[in-house]
Structures are given as C-alpha cells and as structure tokens.
Amino acid sequence: MIRKxxxxxxxxxxxxxxxxxxxxxxxxxxxxxxxxxxxSENTGSACPSCGMVRSIWICFSCGEKNISDxxxxxxxxxxxxxxxxxxxxxxxxxxPALRTLAGRGDPxxxxxxxxxxxxxxxxPKDEKAAVECCRKACDAGYAPAYLMLGRFYDQGRLVESNxxxxxxxFRQAADLGVAEAYWYxxxxxxxxxxxxxxxxxxxxxxxxxxxxxxPDCWMSLAYCYAEGKGVAKDFxxxxxxxxxxxxxxxxxxxxxxxxxxxxxxxxxxxxxxxxSWYRKAAALGNGRSMMALGYAYLTGQxxxxxxxxxxxxxxxxxxxxxxxxxxILPQLQQQP
Length: 336
What we know:
This protein is mostly helical. The chain has helices spanning 2-31, 78-86, 91-103, 107-119, 127-139, 143-155, 163-175, 179-191, 199-211, 215-227, 235-247, 251-263, 271-283, 287-299, 307-319, 323-334; strands spanning 33-34, 41-42, 57-58, 65-66. It has a two-stranded antiparallel ribbon with strand order 1-2. Strands 3-4 form a two-stranded antiparallel sheet. The relative contact order is 0.04.
C-alpha cells in the first residue's frame, strides 16, 4: 500500500514538473507590459528606463496620472484612453498602446502594428511579423485585414506574389463589406488576372463597390463606358460616373473633370466649371490640379491673370511633389 502511494506521489511530482515550465512561461508572457511614457517592454512592477510604475496610467485626454479605472482629472475611461492613444496618428505616442492592445488580440491594433513591422517604424523591420499580425486579425474576423493581406499577395509585398490567393482575400473582404475590395476583384476580371477575363463581371464588381462607397470603382466603371470595354462606347454614360467618383472624394476624378471642362471635347468647354473641379482636386491634394490652377492664373485662362496667385499655386504644387513645378518656380520668382 505504501509503495503504491509513493508511486502515485512520484507520478504527480513528475507531472507537476512537466507543467511548471509552461505555467511559468505563460505567467511571464502575461506579466509583460509596455511603458506608456518611453515605450519600453517590461516585466517588473516599474519601468527600469524611466521609472513609470505599472499600475499608474496617464490619461491621453488631460495628461493626469491615475490608478483607478477612470481619470480623476476629466473622467475618461482607462480603456478609452488606451484606444485614443493607440490610434492618435502619432507613432511615438501610439506605439506602446498599440502593442498593449495587439497583445490582447485586438484586430485593429494588430493591423496597425503590421504597418510598423512592414516599414520598420519604432520596431526592427520584420516582414514575417507583419504578415502574422494580419493573419491574427483575419482570424478575429476583421475585414480590413483581409484587404491588407490581399494587397500583399497582389503586389508581392512581404510575401511571394500570388494573384489567386490575393483574389481569395479580396473576396472575403468584399463579403465582409469592404467597398475597396470590389475594385480589386473588378480589375482582376477586367485584366484577366487569376480569373478568365470578363468585362461584364468587372462592371458588376465596380458597380457594387461604387454603391458601397468606393470612388475608384466609379472611376473604373466610367472608364469602361468611355472606352467601350465590355459595353458600347458611351461618354454620356461615363460622365455622370466620373462625377459620382468626384463627389465620393476621388481627387483623380476631380482633376479629370477639371481638364475636361477646361479643354472641351466630349463636353462643351466651361472654364468656370473646370476651375471649380481643379480647386476641389487641389483641396484633396492633387498636385496636377495645383499646376493647372497656377497656369490658369499665369495666363488668364478662365480668370483674371494674377502672377502672385499663380506663384502661390506653383509653390503648393511643388510641396505636393511636382518636379515640374520646381523647375518653373525659379523662372517665376525672377520676374519683376
């Protein structure tokens, strides 16, 4: 009887010895935290780099230090403060909070962290880690992650190019309501990538994406009508689609409409309307439209000639990355 008890005790001890390392590892992983002041990863009760105590959190809204679940300064909830910090758009401030949320499996944070790993921002560049973050976000059912992975496989970025696999991810993203995914699916059908070329199917996808709010889908659908791809060539059908794309926020559509009304051709020339579209495109950051506005003021095309206003637009175009504006600016600035 005693021998049997000893054997049982020995078996229990051996089993416990096998489990303890795993428990210790889990405990260590669970105790890791990211300092919200300096961003360093820690396991102790205080950050050795800056001295920040783990139990204290700093309110993103008012900067108050707290230990309770709500800020004593402004009442902001601790979790809400964490999310605001994570997605504030300032990498230095956002990174520790993003790592904290991603460690919990938050899919939005995982996708954001993937971009950090992809570019080497705040962390060593790690393509494998970037893809893994996206996959984890997909496992959580996060729609934008499917689009992101689709782009990776479409462009051969971080992974080997694989159009059929990209198409699978784009379809999943579209099924989950990502409007932009329809544009990729439509372009695959239009170009015959990973699927048989089918202009009708492409136009169907572009329509679905446009109705879901993607301006590029309206642009592509307009192009199909303008060029007669899969449908009889009909610019009168294309024009309202370009306008839909512009109204949905496409700077390219605004710029194209500006050029169209300034030059005429398929539509009657209307400089006033053309300049209006150019201004909308410029407000959306389109450098070509900024150049066009500069030229209009320089030559008095549709407006009274105004060299100072022309110079202002050329400068904006240069800031927007237009090399041709950089070449023109010295000549304008030398004029008396």
